[in-house]
Design brief:
Strand content of chain B: over 45%
Radius of gyration of chain A: 13 Å
Number of helices of chain A: 0
CATH topology of chain B: Immunoglobulin-like
Largest interface: A-B, 25 and 21 residues
Number of strands of chain B: 11
Oligomer: heterodimer
Mean pLDDT of chain A: 92
CATH class of chain A: Mainly Beta
Helix content of chain B: under 10%
CATH superfamily of chain B: Immunoglobulins
Number of domains of chain A: 1
Strand content of chain A: over 45%
Shape of chain A: globular
Order of helices and strands of chain A: EEEEEEEEEEE
Structural class of chain B: mainly beta
Helix content of chain A: under 10%
Order of helices and strands of chain B: EEEEEEEEEEE
Radius of gyration of chain B: 13 Å
CATH superfamily of chain A: Immunoglobulins
Low-confidence stretches of chain B: none
Chain lengths: ~110, ~110
């Protein structure tokens, strides 16, 4: 009964490949997010969606494309992966009170 | 431009003593502050929050203090327990922004 679940947990791939990370929340929240934790451990927002509508896009390269088929799902597709994309990607959701609930993260390693 | 800063990358405290984690911010528009706790290979979990209209919020062993004039907040954990060993992130938001800005985290180690 995990509240925010994302798959896969680990993703190892070659430069230039395309990959997707999936996220689902069963909390009934209206807003979902993708955050990136880089090598310096900063957690930075990439995107947020409210009821399937994109509301925040924080100067993320066009190679990153989020997709929200419904308000319980927010997937992240990454084209032409680069070495610098290696990081931990966290999905999160929230409802009103501004506290985010996070998934367990996807460790992406680009070789 | 890091708007939320946690200047101590690590902190080591004896079990049973008080742990104090600090956080500074630069954006005076922030009106809501949160602390998250993160274990390895897990996502951050919400711990406690405080609105800018308050200067203190308490929840069990955890208390958050906010000093708006100094743009500083702190998290007090007392008494500290071994299970409190984790990375603690401070975060802040502004009304309507629908996003959190995080500090870089402080690794807390509780020694038996």
């Amino acid at each position: 009964d995990t509240a925010v679940s994302q798959t896969p947990k680990y993703l190892v791939t070659q430069m230039g490949n395309d990959k997707s990370i999936k996220c689902e929340q069963n909390l009934g929240h209206d807003t979902m997010y993708w955050y990136k934790q880089d090598s310096k451990k900063f957690l930075k927002i990439m995107f947020s969606y409210n009821n399937k509508e994109l509301i925040i896009n924080e100067t993320v390269p066009n190679r990153f494309s989020p997709k929200s088929p419904d308000k319980a799902h927010l997937n992240l597709h990454i084209n032409s992966l680069e070495l610098g994309d290696s990081a931990v990607y966290f999905c999160a959701s929230s409802q009103g009170d501004r506290a985010l609930f996070f998934g367990s993260g996807t460790q992406l390693s680009v070789l | 431009d890091q708007q939320v800063k946690q200047n101590s990358p690590s902190l080591s405290v004896q079990e049973g003593r008080i742990s104090i984690l600090n956080c500074d911010y630069t954006n005076s528009m922030f009106d809501y502050f949160l602390w998250y706790k993160k274990y390895p290979a897990e996502g951050p979990t919400f711990l406690i929050s405080i609105s800018s209209i308050k200067d203190k919020n308490e929840d069990g062993r955890f208390t958050v203090f906010l000093n708006k004039s100094a743009k500083h907040l702190s998290l007090h954990i007392v008494p500290s327990q071994p299970g409190d060993s984790a990375v603690y992130f401070c975060a802040a938001s502004t009304v309507g922004a629908q996003k959190l800005v995080f500090g870089q985290g402080t690794r807390l180690t509780i020694n038996p």
